[in-house]
Amino acid sequence: MLNSTGNPNMLHPPLTLTQTVGDLANHPAFRGFGELLLPWDANARYYATSLSKVGSLMPYHGQVQPAVVLSAVNHLIKEVNSGQTIFYSFYSPQQKQQDTSKEQTGLFFFRGKPGAPFAVVCPGGGFSYVGSLHEGFPLAQQIGENNLNAFVIRYRIGSEQRATEDLAAAIAYIIRNAEKLGVSPRDYSLWGGSAGARMVGNIALSGVVAFGGGGLPKPATAVIAYTGQSTYSADFPPTFITVAANDGIANVKTVERRVASLKAAGVEVVYRRYLTAGHGFGTGKGSDAEGWIDDALGLWKKHIRK
């Protein structure tokens, strides 16, 4: 089950903004899965890019703060140095052998309080890349700092259906291994931005079982950031939705129609509209969306049973 265990007798150095994307991919703390931290299935063309320009790897994302990205990545290095496992495969070797595209999947674990509920964070990227560096790891780091557990999913690109199937498989894997992972299987939350938010919306609408993950409960809450997906039902979990008025990809009117439809169906919705954060604002740090994660956490904590 475990894919990488740190060696506390061999401390790995943190990364700095003067280093390159190649230094990140080939960092010894990430041996065996370093490429999966990066957005694309093939990233070698970016290896010479400075980490100070890491935003150039994620064209659909805005407000990328290299220092925020590096803080989250260095948190993972620190975890490895303390002997923690940070990367897990949710598909078996046999499943990967049958479908080699599943080699491009996995879960990065940001630990909070042992035994606390977990979130799965689904970064966006238009199903052409997975923007974990900006829209996954920094969010998960903040969730962990709030004593809750968070996994960032690296899913297969190219298909919304396959990506959602990966999410269902990941949820099933975490719940099945909750005791070994040190998380509660109850009251989990799904978080997604843009394409990742479509994955979350698919599970919120149809459940895990519809995507091959078995008869598991829907999440206790869904966190949906800047997507034009419009599906809804009265069976949606309590939902946090956010978007910026100047988003050039997710139309704010479409988002607000969904908010209104969910509320009319009796679903509890917390909605935050910002003015100038644009599309793919991640944590929102440095923009008018800064602080939205605290509001989303507030909704989730409200629905965590004592």
Question: Which key terms come to mind for this protein?
Answer:
306 residues; 10 helices; alpha/beta; 8 strands; eight-stranded mixed β-sheet
Describe the protein:
- The protein has helices at residues 21-25, 66-81, 93-98, 132-135, 137-145, 160-176, 178-181, 195-206, 252-264, 292-302, and strands spanning 87-88, 106-110, 118-122, 149-154, 189-193, 221-225, 239-244, 269-274.
- With 306 residues, it is α/β, with parallel strands linked by helices.
- It has an eight-stranded mixed β-sheet with strand order 1-2-4-3-5-6-7-8, with helices on both faces.
- Helix 6 (160-176) crosses helix 8.
- Mean pLDDT is 96; it is low at 1-8.
In short:
The protein is of the alpha/beta class and 306 residues long. It contains 10 helices and 8 strands.
The number of distinct β-strands equals: 8
How do the SSEs run, as a string of H and E?
A: HHEHEEHHEHHEHEEHEH
Largest beta sheet, briefly?
8 strands, mixed
Question: What is the terminal separation in angstroms?
Answer: 29 Å
Mean pLDDT: 96
What is the 3D form? globular
Quaternary form: single chain
Broad structural category: alpha/beta
The share of residues in helices is 25-40%
Beta fraction of the residues?
5-15%
Helical run tally:
10
Would you identify the regions where 5 or more consecutive residues have pLDDT less than 50?
1-8
List strands and helices in order, with pairings.
Elements: H1 21-25, H2 66-81, E1 87-88, H3 93-98, E2 106-110, E3 118-122, H4 132-135, H5 137-145, E4 149-154, H6 160-176, H7 178-181, E5 189-193, H8 195-206, E6 221-225, E7 239-244, H9 252-264, E8 269-274, H10 292-302
Parallel strand pairs: 3-4, 3-5, 5-6, 6-7, 7-8
Antiparallel strand pairs: 1-2, 2-4
